[in-house]
């Protein structure tokens, strides 16, 4: 390699390093690479935690020491099946939504180009579904933290990995309510690198971030429920078993008493036991009681947890008081939560992923004119009903094409897209939206294709007849069609706006002065001619 080539490579390396420094990007690493994830988990037995200990953890969190509290929350979600199930429902609801990246309002060609670039970058990032799921971990904790590792690909800065980090690895600045990374030996924590984190702060209530998560509410029901589960397990161990009392003579030694105790215990579980003949065991009535009080407490806690997490109970638990109708009503509440979750996540992704992508790759970025991330949260509607309403509404109001595509969910055709053929036949195929002409071929093309593609002789014959009749209608003189469109359709449109026979009759009297008798007679005759042809087509079909 020549000296000149070596010098060019070194200069290029210096240029890249300077560019990265100016942009503030760290390639090939994250700020949290050296964090020991396992060391941040709760170090006690969460099932034996007491209300007093929980109160201490929550108080410490209010002072900014959130590590132990979030470690406990992580264990609660893992060890309580009901909480785990309901949290999965809450997160998964958002992941079922379609998403897109939209350009700002009144976007310039440059802004549209940047929007398309961002959309492609996110679509090509194979971990993006995992990123959204991990970010929604903030629903329970109040926030979630994802570290971004950047890489350079073809002179573009793109995420290489976006990795979830445990909330217990952070502390909270009490004055600013900002998160800091926990570091050994650093009492105040380490400030987070700009544009290298996605910190999704999910607000379920106002106030400090330490109090924002759902687990802050759920922790109390978790403790009450597990006390009841433990008590129920103890009750079931002895339920139905007789009370056994062992008797020994006065002066019996410690070892002999231990033998008797073992015999009493063995008799309860094994129905057999061994003991000296000078000792005895008496059996009294079986242990009595009911499991109902324990189950009532467990049921109460789980219903409360469902209300907190998904906003309702009936879709979580089926009992004798539930119903299909009530379930549907309650499901609407859960949908409101889903929409709120989606909007909060979209806001975070716009500010903390889309903006860094543009900031690192382009120099002319206006932060107030960013492309924005959006979930499709519109409710599914009856497509047939929408099309029917729009079809009737066009007679009374101007409806934009964009409104039609937005309400139906159809994608707007782009240049070069293959389009479906519109099949138009009969009298009402000749409508206000289409001017028929002998050369338009709007029906004959699709019928010709159908005739060629079918192998059924009967179907082929029927389609051939329809094709011939449709062609005859197409070849009617323009004056027939124009007279129909200019006269009859105006009358039909006016009659549709009436609500009674009398009102329709009055409307006809209003229209008559503007119509010459011979003109109206000719138009009606031509309309009847076209109707006859339409009837023949219908009869042949």
From TrEMBL:
<protein>
    <submittedName>
        <fullName>DUF935 domain-containing protein</fullName>
    </submittedName>
</protein>
<dbReference type="Pfam" id="PF06074">
    <property type="entry name" value="Portal_Mu"/>
</dbReference>
<dbReference type="InterPro" id="IPR009279">
    <property type="entry name" value="Portal_Mu"/>
</dbReference>
């Amino acid at each position: 390699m020549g000296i000149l080539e070596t010098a060019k490579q070194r200069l290029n390396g210096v240029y890249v390093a300077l560019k990265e420094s100016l942009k503030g990007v760290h390639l090939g690493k994250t700020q949290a690479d050296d964090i020991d994830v396992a060391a941040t988990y709760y170090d006690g037995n969460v099932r034996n935690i007491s209300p007093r200990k929980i109160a201490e953890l929550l108080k410490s969190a209010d002072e900014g020491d959130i590590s132990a509290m979030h470690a406990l929350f992580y264990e609660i979600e893992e060890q309580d099946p009901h909480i785990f199930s309901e949290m999965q429902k809450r997160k998964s609801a958002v992941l079922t939504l379609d998403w897109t990246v939209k350009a700002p309002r009144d976007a310039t060609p440059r802004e549209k180009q940047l929007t398309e670039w961002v959309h492609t970058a996110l679509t090509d990032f194979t971990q993006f579904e995992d990123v959204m799921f991990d970010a929604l971990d903030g629903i329970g904790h109040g926030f979630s933290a994802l570290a971004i590792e950047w890489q350079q690909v073809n002179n573009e800065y793109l995420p290489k990995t976006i990795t979830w980090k445990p909330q217990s690895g952070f502390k909270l600045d009490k004055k600013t309510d900002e998160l800091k990374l926990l570091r050994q030996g650093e009492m105040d924590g380490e400030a987070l690198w700009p544009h290298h984190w996605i910190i999704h702060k999910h607000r379920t209530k106002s106030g400090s971030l330490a109090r924002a998560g759902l687990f802050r509410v759920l922790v109390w029901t978790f403790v009450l429920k597990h006390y009841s589960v433990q008590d129920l397990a103890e009750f079931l161990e002895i339920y139905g078993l007789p009370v056994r009392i062992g008797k020994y003579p006065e002066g019996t030694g410690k070892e002999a008493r231990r033998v008797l105790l073992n015999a009493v215990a063995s008799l309860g579980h094994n129905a057999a036991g061994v003991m000296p003949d000078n000792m005895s065991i008496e059996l009294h009535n079986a242990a009595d009681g009911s499991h109902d009080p324990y189950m009532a407490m467990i049921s109460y806690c789980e219903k409360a947890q469902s209300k907190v997490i998904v906003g309702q109970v009936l879709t979580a638990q089926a009992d004798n008081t539930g119903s299909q109708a009530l379930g549907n009503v309650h499901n609407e509440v859960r949908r409101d939560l889903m929409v709120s979750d989606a909007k909060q996540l979209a806001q975070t992704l716009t500010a903390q992923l889309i903006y860094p992508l543009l900031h690192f790759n382009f120099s002319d970025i206006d932060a107030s004119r960013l492309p924005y991330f959006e979930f499709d949260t519109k409710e599914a509607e009856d497509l047939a009903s929408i099309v029917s309403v729009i079809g009737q509404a066009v007679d009374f109001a101007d409806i934009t094409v964009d409104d039609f595509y937005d309400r139906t969910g159809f994608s707007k055709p782009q240049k070069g897209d293959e389009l479906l053929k519109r099949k138009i036949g009969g009298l009402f195929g000749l409508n206000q939206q289409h001017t028929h002409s002998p050369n338009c071929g709007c029906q004959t093309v699709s019928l010709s294709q159908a005739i060629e593609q079918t192998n059924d002789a009967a179907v082929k014959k029927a389609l051939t007849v329809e094709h011939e009749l449709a062609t005859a209608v197409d070849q009617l003189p323009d004056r027939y069609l124009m007279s129909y469109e200019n006269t009859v359709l105006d009358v039909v449109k006016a009659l549709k706006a009436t609500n009674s026979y009398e009102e329709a009759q009055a409307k006809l009297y209003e229209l008559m002065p503007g119509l010459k008798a011979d003109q109206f007679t000719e138009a009606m005759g031509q309309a009847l001619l076209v109707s006859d042809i339409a009837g023949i087509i219908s009869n042949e079909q």
